[in-house]
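Hypothesis: this fold can be encoded by more than one sequence.
Test: take the structure tokens below, design a sequence, compare later.
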């Protein structure tokens, strides 16, 4: 993908994404610089389409059935599409542009205008193709204020607000820098069984 023009980079350097430090989901002991876990775009998109807009990576443990229901409920009631993907720490490189790239790739694969949020360990990023950047930031600030210290509550309130927001003009898209597209890993080749 060719690098965006300099004027485009300047335009999207303003808060194009909502970013916030949050309490980690299912911290797996991975640390910054650790190799990313497998991110399967096809699996993510299938889950978002078939499970009410929610994807939870198998490594993002620690969520009760009640918490999962609290995350899914506002997604299923949304008038504007909202998609939420949750990953453990270490699932992606610890760079904002890596999270932005995943958001863009999910959006392009789902092919629906809406709001997309990705949580990786201790960081949440969101971008909306349904309304303005300013509205996205306001919704997240409102969710932080009313959701208390619970990340699940904050995400649920953000999804509720994004799903009932008034449609508007979205920005140019999040800055992905030079990040390569997320590619669904090919299956490991089968090794033929040797003679016994």
């Amino acid at each position: 993908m060719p690098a965006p023009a300099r004027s485009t980079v300047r335009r999207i350097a303003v808060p194009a994404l909502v970013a916030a430090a949050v309490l980690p989901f299912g911290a797996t002991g991975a640390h910054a610089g650790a190799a990313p876990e497998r991110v399967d775009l096809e699996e993510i998109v299938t889950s978002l389409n078939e499970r009410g807009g929610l994807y939870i990576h198998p490594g993002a443990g620690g969520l009760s059935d009640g918490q999962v229901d609290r995350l899914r409920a506002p997604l299923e009631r949304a008038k504007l599409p909202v998609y939420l993907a949750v990953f453990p720490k270490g699932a992606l490189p610890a760079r904002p542009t890596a999270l932005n790239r995943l958001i863009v790739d999910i959006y392009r694969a789902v092919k629906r205008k809406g709001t997309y949020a990705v949580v990786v360990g201790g960081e949440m990023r969101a971008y909306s193709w349904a309304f303005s950047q300013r509205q996205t930031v306001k919704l997240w600030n409102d969710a932080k204020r009313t959701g208390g210290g619970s990340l699940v509550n904050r995400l649920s309130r953000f999804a509720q607000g994004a799903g009932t927001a008034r449609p508007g003009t979205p920005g140019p898209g999040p800055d992905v820098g030079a990040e390569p597209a997320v590619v669904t890993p090919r299956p490991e080749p089968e090794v033929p069984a040797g003679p016994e």
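The radius of gyration is 17 Å. Residues 1-16, 20-36 have pLDDT under 50 and may be disordered.
Hypothesis status: open.
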